[in-house]
Write a structure and sequence with these properties.
Rossmann fold, 15 helices, binds guanosine-5'-diphosphate, binds calcium ion
Length: 342
Amino acid sequence: MRITALAGGIGGARFLTGVRVARPDAEITVIGNTGDDITLHGLRICPDLDTVMYTLGGGISEERGWGREDESFVVSGELAAYGVGPSWFGLGDRDLATHLVRTQMIDAGYKLSDVVTALCDRWRPGVRLLPMSDDRVETHVIINDDQGRRAVHFQEWWLKLRASVPAEAILSVGAAESTPAPGVLDAIAAADVVLIGPSNPVVSIGTILSVPGIADALRVTLAPVIGISPIIGGAAVRGMADACLKAIGVETTARAVGAHYGGRHRDGETASAPERKGTSGGAERELGHGLLDGWLVDVVDADVAADPDAIPGATVKAVPLLMTDLEATVAIVEAALELAGV
Ligand code: GDP
Ligand code: CA
């Protein structure tokens, strides 16, 4: 069986541990978010891809959810002693080796997807990890604070400002000119099932969907597309996804996020792709992106599953969605595969 999953960082990676255990014989392809990527100290850093790679490769810090276990921060301390920041981005010594290898390879002319393959040769994550694009696509946030109206890198808004300043807009810079990385569209077209993991709907999944061609591939694939809600009982389980959803005018509820992704209307009612273009178009606001055959919500959101009109075109099912441990996570994956009928 071929499973293709869209994933961001911590939420996506945790979900993927369940996918791997639920279907150990499956060929699993992960399309990862690179919108969080940033260059610091001359090093290219890909936080979400690394979180997936370290988590599935057994090198993640379980406590933090990002970066390496048994980590030290000697280099960061030395940089701080020189007054060289930023201090808000954690860069451990072990982790730095990954960024050094990646930067060296990129400077030598390799594509990001080649770099990911090389890094995964060490970590053996048990999945084929693909960046959404080899092109540089970065999430920037428009804010208006005491320093005036300006755009900051997503990481500055998220880590330094802890999303405390409202985002006027969230932009996927470079997305319009980007193309999907090799293998991405094929992985969606040739899948037996596509899973949209419980990742941030705006700055993880939304960013992946901002790469031209990916959302269209999801709309036309013969594979069932099943989404797992990252929102439970009106709140992001961890993190500040509500601040991102607010910026795009979507309520922080499982119903609203499901409606934002939108049902696929396989019976032929699907609005044509051009009508759906743009992030604030009327058709999209009413029908969503037209991506989902199925949407899993938590049992506390059972009212969404009970309402046949909640997400027109998609079947909604309520199951426990807290990824408290591996067993609970595997059960979520099983529920998603059952909903997909595979
Ligand atoms: P990030 O890139 O590290 O922020 O990670 P992701 O974008 O992959 O996932 C972050 C999202 O995971 C958060 O917005 C949460 O809503 C969601 N999340 C975290 N833990 C859980 C959980 O146990 N269950 C569900 N359903 N969602 C979760
Ligand atoms: Ca992320």
